[in-house]
Design goal:
67% of the residues lie in helices and 4% in strands. The chain has seven helices and two strands, in the order H-H-H-E-E-H-H-H-H. It comes from Paenibacillus pini JCM 16418. One of its GO terms (molecular function) is phosphatidate cytidylyltransferase activity.
């Protein structure tokens, strides 16, 4: 008689369900000292941060052997979008993007960030010796800028709800580690899911 065999790692949806089950079980075992809202926040945080960074690791180990190139391409596009949005917004920004969530961001700055990110990805295309076609470079730059700016807004939204200015104190003046990485953990999964990188 053959025993039941199970091979790890589990499928992603299995792992997510088991994680959800464990957090829900904590509410029972602690007799609701850990409430459902806390469990939900912990679950969301694990998926938000954990899966975001797992896709960063996936970018480093793409099947085409150019993982380092793709990783730096995404990081450079994110950083150039942030810088472009900041400087263009300071220069000509006059229309608020979403003042209820992030009062300093402007529509002009957001568009400037998109343009600078796309130009940055084009530079990578020209230097890639054919690894990155121009059309894909433009799509990656666009995806990095839009998803990255949405990542910034997501973090601004939850910080506003909880009345906090910074996500941590490890980097004084920079808002904390998560503030430096909030775009990464949205952009890397999005670019992979959109199938813009080789597998």
């Amino acid at each position: 008689m053959e025993l039941i065999r199970y091979t790890f790692p589990a499928a992603v949806e299995h792992a997510i369900w088991l994680l959800l089950f464990l957090f829900m079980l904590v509410t029972v075992l602690t007799k609701n000292r850990v409430g459902i809202q806390q469990a939900a926040m912990l679950f969301l945080g694990v998926l938000y941060v954990g899966m975001g960074f797992s896709y960063l690791a996936d970018s480093r180990s793409t099947s085409d052997g150019h993982g380092l190139f793709w990783t730096f391409l995404l990081l450079a596009s994110i950083w150039s979008s942030d810088a472009g949005a900041y400087f263009v917004g300071k220069w000509i920004g006059s229309h608020k993007l979403w003042p209820a969530i992030s009062p300093n961001k402007t529509i002009e700055g957001a568009l400037g960030g998109v343009v600078i990110a796309m130009l940055t990805s084009c530079v990578f295309s020209f230097l890639s010796s054919g690894v990155l076609p121009l059309g894909r470079a433009l799509l990656i730059g666009l995806a990095c800028a839009v998803a990255g700016q949405l990542g910034d807004l997501i973090q601004s939204a939850y910080k506003r709800v909880y009345g906090i200015k910074d996500s941590g104190t490890l980097l004084p003046g920079h808002g904390g580690i998560l503030d430096r990485c909030d775009s990464w953990i949205i952009v890397f999964p999005f670019v992979h899911i959109a199938m813009l990188l080789p597998y």
